[in-house]
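Example 9 (inverse folding). The structure is encoded as follows.
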């Protein structure tokens, strides 16, 4: 059977300077089954509470007391013990003040002399209110704990995802490198070319302040820029001498073949502009689309400079490697015609070629290529 709150042993702290009131109310409450602690003023009461000498469920607090007024004690209790309802005890003359205490956090007030029925009823109401406060606090605490554990879970999952993404990125980069090596295997003169173009492109992109994800795709695009050469006959790639118009057209077609190869892979979508556009000229004289200026995607303009610089400083079937100085001069003279002048300026001013300096002027010859 469910017991009513009034019949359960509850603790009440009675604070009143009048010994008769303490005695009368005390007896009434003890008879009603409450545990009682009495305090003759606010200082004693606060000591009982602060030293944890008694844990009241309800506090009965007189308004008019010497030393510390009931209003001051109420403020302290509300601040330090917000879960304990306080019922004010007041004389009829202080009724206005008593009403005001409710705005200051008192649960209710009782006018002295207090009638027994009213006293017990008000205490029972206050006890129910306290149960709600405690339950509310428990739910708030549980909610906070849940939020905290949720945040921890989200953090853990984010870390796992970041790790998975990092692994995926590494795998992608490895896959792209393998693809790039496939191109280079077909044209051994270009060994290491794609990776050097990647390093140079990365440095240019970083120098002009592109975002991390843009730089990332420029790296992939730089590695893949000549993937379309897979579709160009080897005798054309290795031809030692000028190409006929028809051969040139077939060679130029590597940009379109390359785009067709990678467009089936969603991940490479941002690289398409590089693969298709790395032979476009800034003045519109390039191929395959004859785009000019900023109509050529910034990533393709970057890779065009990196590609040309590395091609000039590498040995090719039809010529030996040119010096760095020569390649830099060529970039300078090709500024505005073939290359984006702002990017050429960055390339020259920042000495970007230095990032691959240890790999420059060490061309792979046919002789040592066979030994590799
Ligand atoms: Fe190319």
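The amino acid assigned to each position is listed next.
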């Amino acid at each position: 059977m469910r017991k009513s709150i009034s019949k359960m042993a509850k603790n009440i702290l009675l604070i009143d300077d009048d010994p008769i009131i303490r005695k009368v109310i005390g007896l009434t409450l003890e008879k009603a089954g409450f545990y009682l602690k009495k305090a003759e003023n606010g200082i004693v009461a606060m000591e009982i509470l602060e030293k944890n000498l008694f844990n009241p469920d309800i506090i009965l607090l007189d308004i008019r007391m010497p030393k510390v007024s009931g209003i001051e004690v109420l403020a302290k209790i509300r601040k330090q013990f917000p879960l304990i309802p306080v019922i004010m005890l007041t004389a009829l003359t202080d009724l206005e003040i008593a009403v005001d205490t409710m705005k200051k956090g008192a649960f209710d007030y009782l006018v002295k002399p207090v009638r027994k029925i009213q006293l017990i009823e008000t205490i029972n109401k206050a006890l129910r209110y306290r149960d709600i406060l405690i339950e509310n606090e428990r739910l708030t605490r549980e909610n906070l704990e849940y939020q905290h554990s949720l945040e921890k879970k989200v953090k853990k999952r984010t870390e796992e995802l970041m790790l998975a993404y990092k692994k995926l990125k590494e795998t992608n980069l490895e896959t792209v490198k393998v693809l790039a090596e496939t191109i280079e295997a077909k044209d051994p003169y270009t060994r290491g070319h794609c990776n050097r173009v990647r390093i140079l492109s990365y440095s240019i992109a970083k120098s002009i302040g592109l975002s991390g994800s843009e730089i990332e795709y420029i790296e992939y695009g730089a590695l893949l820029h000549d993937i379309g050469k897979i579709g160009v006959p080897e005798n054309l790639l290795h031809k030692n001498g000028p190409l006929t118009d028809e051969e040139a057209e077939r060679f130029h077609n590597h940009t379109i073949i390359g785009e067709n190869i990678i467009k089936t892979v969603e991940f490479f979508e941002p690289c398409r502009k590089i693969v298709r556009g790395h032979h476009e000229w800034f003045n519109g004289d390039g191929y395959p689309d004859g785009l000019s200026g900023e109509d050529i995607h910034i990533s393709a303009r970057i890779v065009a400079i990196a590609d040309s610089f590395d091609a000039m400083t590498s040995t090719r079937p039809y010529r030996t490697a040119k010096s760095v100085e020569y390649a830099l001069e060529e970039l300078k003279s090709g500024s505005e015609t073939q290359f984006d002048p702002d990017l050429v300026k960055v390339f020259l001013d920042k000495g970007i070629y230095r990032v691959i300096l240890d790999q420059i002027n060490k061309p792979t010859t046919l002789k040592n290529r066979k030994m590799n």
